[in-house]
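Sanity check

After download, print the first record. It should look like this:
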Amino acid sequence: MALMTRRRALLGLGTLAGGVLGARCALPHLLRHEPPRPLEGALAAEVETCFADVDRTKLWDVHVHLVGRGVGTQAFVGHELTNRLALWKNLQYEIYAAAAGLSTDDDTPDAAYLERLLALHRLGNPQGKLVLLAFDQFVDEQGNEVPDRSELYTPNEYVLEVARNHPDVVPGASVHPYRTDALARLERALDGGARLIKWLPNAMGIDPRDARCLPFYRVLAERKVPLLTHTGDEQAVDAREAQALGHPARLLPALEAGVTVIAAHVATTGACVDERATLAADVGPPSCFDALRSLLRDPRTEGRLFADISAITQVNRAGAHLAELLMDTALHARLVNGSDYPLPAIDPLVSTRYLERQGLLSSAHRALCNQVFAHNPLLFDYVLKRKVRVLAGGVEHRLPPRVFESARLFDGSRA
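Expected structure tokens:
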């Protein structure tokens, strides 16, 4: 019997490994996009109506990732992602690369990703801007870089150089506050033109309440530079056991210091438990979304705390909170647009079929969005967010145009 059990276990493992290997080979091919192409005819006319009520020059996408593998730049992707023996992680990497329309050949330059991204942007809304983000490494408690725990790294210098050469790019730097030279790096990035700072605490190992962040906050407040930081659970980059670092309440020290904070994804994943609270046996922990919404409703955060709507149409987020977000009109003044590109280009991750079944997208608008996706997945993200809606009591609830005019958060910034 024990022998049969072991055989079944080995067979099961073999089947699982075979399935993963098959998916690794097939999925990236199926998800790969064609070169960017312009919209034409009736499709172009229909999409144009999505811009009719907004100032196109103020349409800034505040959450766009610049990535690279170190071919022509100092950026890198973690070894586990590119290691073909790490089946799950390598599959994730292959899917991301396919969504970005890139080859994973060792000699494909990092500039290919940038060229495709800029082409998508200019075909969609050349009058707007992309806030292109750097991404710092994981840094330990002693202030040392830990490359083995850094799945992605995009240096500030790369983003700043791109912005110098492309006026439709706004540079967003990333500096880990635990670095021994954190303030010097921050000042150097801001002096170089950075208009925003990006953190992903869960993956970078940053506790926004840590005292080491306070001098960092003082500089951001003084120079009026927003902090864009992940909130809620992190599911795209390895966060290990550090999901608690995405609790929105940990942003209070930054807000109290006068920093303009943008909470990424409106904290639409995860449960956020207040360490000081005792939950009743029949009451589960509150969602991170509810924790952030409480902060956004607090008059003391008025004018300083905002949230970006990047990734809110993904299947892992939309079912839980998208309808609530659409109907909470009091919250809309605090929202700004971001795409989290290249994630919107991953077909299974943003499912128009799922959104239609949830009653969040009409069949006609689903067909429109699918057509746009085939031409331009970055533009698709914008059109989809203009079209999602909730029908309640005979009233249609949508995201208002002002949400997409994200340039307003940068009006007072100076670098």
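If your output differs, re-run the checksum step. Summary of this record's structure: The chain has one domain: 32-75+110-410.
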